[in-house]
Amino acid sequence: MEKGKKNWVFCDGYLPPKGDNPEFEGHEALMLTNLNDEKTKIELVLVFEDREPEDGIFVELDGMRTTCIRLDKPLGPQKYQLGESVQYTIWVKSELPICACFGRLDVRQTNMAYYSVEGCTF
Predict the structure, then answer these.
(1) Contact by Cβ (8 Å): 59, 67
(2) Rounded to an integer, what distance in angstroms lies between the CA atom of residue 33 and that of residue 48?
(3) Which helix (H) or strand (E) holds 8?
(4) Count of CB atoms within 10 A of residue 105's CB?
(5) CA pair distance 7, 103, nearest whole angstrom
(6) pTM reported for the whole predicted model
(7) Would you write out the chain's pLDDT as a tens digit for each of its 122 residues?
């Protein structure tokens, strides 16, 4: 039985600006789970509306493990940094089928908003 998909696309990337309350750290995150017994290599490709894609951001995920990648932190060995309030899509390409979801915590107002979504898979 296949446990996940090799390609995931999350179209609503938009890292929110920091809020006024330092106790709460707004962010976006990509959650990845590898239900296979083997380690898999994963490439993250960032697609933008006004410039060329940023690719070559690699992550390895051991078998039967999960990880949360904070998108407000530097990404990959090249330490690529997404800017705040930049519209982007994230394409997740894995050597083995994985499960993925995307979440955002927006703390710019008192009633903070958090949501998590699954992406399009193919």
Answers:
(1) yes
(2) 25
(3) strand 5-14
(4) 18
(5) 18
(6) 0.90
(7) 788 999 999 998 988 777 777 777 778 899 999 999 999 999 999 999 999 999 999 999 999 999 999 998 999 988 999 988 899 999 999 999 999 999 987 777 766 767 787 778 87
- The angle formed by the CA atoms of residues 106, 107 and 109, to the nearest 5 degrees, is 110
Distance from C-alpha of 61 to C-alpha of 65, rounded to nearest angstrom: 7
Residues whose CB is less than 8 angstroms from the CB of residue 99 and which lie 6 or more positions away in sequence, other chains included: 3, 4, 5, 32, 33, 35
Q: What angle do CA 112, 76, 45 make, to 5 degrees?
A: 75
- How many whole angstroms separate alpha carbon 99 and alpha carbon 115? 17
| CATH number for the domain that contains residue 24 | 2.60.290.11
Q: How many domains does the chain have?
A: 1
- Which residues form the domain of 86? 5-121
What single-letter DSSP state applies at residue 35? -
